[in-house]
Hints:
Blueprint (H helix, E strand, L loop, with lengths): L4 E4 L2 E5 L8 H6 L1 H17 L1 H11 L2 H15 L4 H7 L4 H5 L1 H17 L1 E7 L12 H24 L15 E6 L17 E7 L3 E3 L11 E2 L15 E8 L2 E8 L3 H5 L6 E2 L2 H4 L6 E7 L8 E6 L4 E7 L7 H17 L4 E12 L4 E7 L6 H10 L1 H4 E8 L2 E6 L5 E5 L3 E5 L5 H6 L5 E3 L7 E5 L3 H4 L3 E2 L2 E6 L8 E3 L3 H10 L1 E3 L9 E3 L12 H17 L3 E6 L10 H15 L1
Helix pairs in contact: 2-3, 2-4, 2-7, 7-8, 12-18
Amino acid sequence: MLQEFTINEGKVIMNFSVKFCDTRQKLLNSYGFKRVMETFLRKLKTDDLIVYNYYMDEFKSEELFADTLINVFKLLTVCNTEEIMHVDNKYNIFFDDRDNFLELIDLLYTFWSKLERFAVVNNTTVAQGLQNVRFNQSNGLFSELVLTTYRRLQEMVRGYEDRVFRLLAMGANAGLMTSNIPWNCPTEYRGLSHIPFITNVVFDPPFITYTKRNTRDGIFHEHKENPIANIVLNENEWFLFPVKVGSMLTFVYFHSDFMDQGFGLANLFELAKEDQYMGKKPDIIYVYAYPDGHDEKRTFYYKDKKNDILIGYANHTDDVDYFGYMKKMLLTLHNIKQMQFDRLPIHGAMVNIALKNGKESNIIIMGDSGAGKSESLEAFRSLNAEYIRHMRVIFDDMGYLVKEKDGSIKGYGTEIGAFVRIDDLDPAYAYEQLDRGIYSNPDKVNARVTIPISTYDVISRGYKVDYFLYANNYADSVEKIKIYSDLDEAIKIFEDGARKAKGTTTEKGLVKSYFANPFGPVQEKDVAGKLIQQFFKDMSDNGVKIGEMHTSLAIDGRTKDGPREAAEELFKIINE
Length: 576
């Protein structure tokens, strides 16, 4: 990012490498403050017309209003109100009704506090910035500057000092550190090669975002032409997040208009280290929110066989403004790539549990969105004191099975975090995540939180599978755990992928998706079908117990009790 400051649709991006304000005068004189003031006055016109009209009757134009307001702020940092009124009577409008002026200052402060504020530091930029100083220190200084400037304005207008101080973080909510690092870029993608890599991420939780959509719709289809061949990305508008999706090195390019979706990757996937991609070629490239001139949503993938890279693509439209389009495309690409290596993708959750009686089990609960995977893990957590000595989450949404050289079947994870529905979590647990969570649309249906739940070392270690269970969310059976002796019967249940939709997508009622996984197996059904037959036989030969877990998650009144009762029955079976 080369620009000093941008503000758009509730998001602010500050380039600390180009401009860093460390004094009140620098802050009030900055281009960024002028842009914030202009945007604030436009919002004031819609949200608080009484205050807006009071001043506009005097100034007539927003430009004059903004300039005069900034000037009086500058004067208040060094003068008292009487001195200012002696300087020029044009400022009297602010002091004739001081309560009105104090309300205006508070409204501006609140407007700034509700923006999603990102800061960028580029390690190679030579400018009047702080690229050689720790971001945490610089952002702390900037936050304190904003707070003290606000308090100074209040105190000077009121005529007395504050007695109660609220130490809010008023700098950037999140910071991205970037570096220009060379990679083995094929000719077709030279237009991407100049975008700097994100090397470090910091943020001040809880980080709350609001998106234009709160559900995902449809599946991603294969495209016959390369959608990103020879495109050129603008360095002012694009960021590159290098992540490890499972074992796959993945370059995620995202547009700055969708900054919160790109930033959400920090809590979900492992940020790749420089030595993992310097001079190397990725397994996957995803270009998210490319403005291609189409108003309708365009999301698909392309197999670049020449360069052995799987390409994901989403265009710049409001319809993809939901983290599901970031996460699920990456998982689709990952799963298709893993199937090329004869590995079976699993849409579900896997947990390693050590019980208090000394027994240990590795359990996979498979099911599509809303089937009860994450809720079952939460039920396990709630039973921790009664049954569990130790619990380790291997994956909470997507993983894959590998047949090892010794013939055993092991499960691996793709994500270090989870993107889970707040509605279906225990309220206490949801609040416990405040110190590390990224919350999306917390006051709406399908509210979500993205939280870290494991480490990359854990998810990539490989755990031998003991139980492989299908999450049935629509049948309230007395028998919560059912183990199948007939392998064909079990395969049919898993391949049917039946569930009652819970509102996490646009689907409604009882629906089916092949192998409960519309992120790879549906698109590559022939390949997946052969892998399913082989892996189920191998699991059966290895003594893996295959069956159903009735979570009852979609049954009214059973959202919390259903997963808990199923978890209790499972623990009793393991204890036997």
